[in-house]
Structure formats: C-alpha cells, structure tokens
Amino acid sequence: MIRTILTYPNPELKKKSAPVAVINDSIQQLVKDMAETMYDAPGVGLAAPQIGVHQRIVVIDVSAKDEPPALIVAINPVIVHAEGEAYEEEGCLSVPGYSANVRRHASVVVKGLDPAGNEKTWRAEDLLAIAFQHEIDHLDGILFVDHLSPLKRDLFQRKFRKAAEEKRGDK
Fold first, then answer.
1. What is the pTM for the complete model shown?
2. Catalytic annotation on 85?
3. Are 33 and 52 in contact (CB under 8 A)?
C-alpha cells in the first residue's frame, strides 16, 4: 500500500524514532509499504518517519533506472564507521522542490537487521553512503536542510514561505 509522505514543516518529521523490538507481520507489511511508497514517489530512499511511523526502519535503492531494483531494507540501522568527505546535492521526498549541497561522509559502514531479523553490515560509498546518512538522519528527526549553513537555511525557509504563500493565494 502506498502511504502518504509527510512534508516539511510537518512536526512529525522532527521526532526521533524508536528501535524496532520485534520483527513481526506488521513490520514486514510496513517494510513492503515503505518500498512501494519509495518506488512510487519515486525516490532512492525512505525512512519510516516520513510516512508518520516512528520506528527505526529505512529502505534504499540507488540502482540506475536501467538496472534491476536493488532494495536495501535496514532495521535499527547504526553508522559504526564513517570516513572521508562528500559534498553532493541532495533532495528529499519530504522537502519537495528544494535541493542543496550537503556535507556528508564519503563512505560509511552501517550495521542493522534485515527484514528476516538477521544482523547485517553494509559498506557504502558514494550515493549509497549519502542515502544511508540521509535516511538515518530522518530516524533522529533531522532533515537535510538542518545541515545547511544558517544563511542557506534562511534562504530555504524564505523560499518555502514564499511558495506556501503563493499556493494559498496570499500573493
């Protein structure tokens, strides 16, 4: 089932998520819904809080359009090692219509559980490393715009307010 993706400034996006205690049928269904919602959007990643569920689950697929899907499901993901620096443009399904360059680690090692409950380690570089960091931030109530400099964040907020006013017909 495709779920509704919450968008900025919905306060639900700023809440921290709780670890998944038991991987049961409802978690399995949530993972399926998240993947379907991400592919439908379309996006390369989705964290459970983006659909209003505050559980530590992310789905990611950074495969190219001409490649078969390569879905990654990480339950209770934790970055256990990070190194290097990347400064790439990011967007977000919860911040539609806005993108900006964000400083991240160039590579990360993430540990978590797969949907069967098995411990898993992902070694990620480039776009996958950025996607893991972006989605794990969502689990802690952090949006990519929170990483912007105060000046860029102010520009974003002004652009957002202006777009919202135009949408309402205030201007």
1. 0.94
2. no
3. no
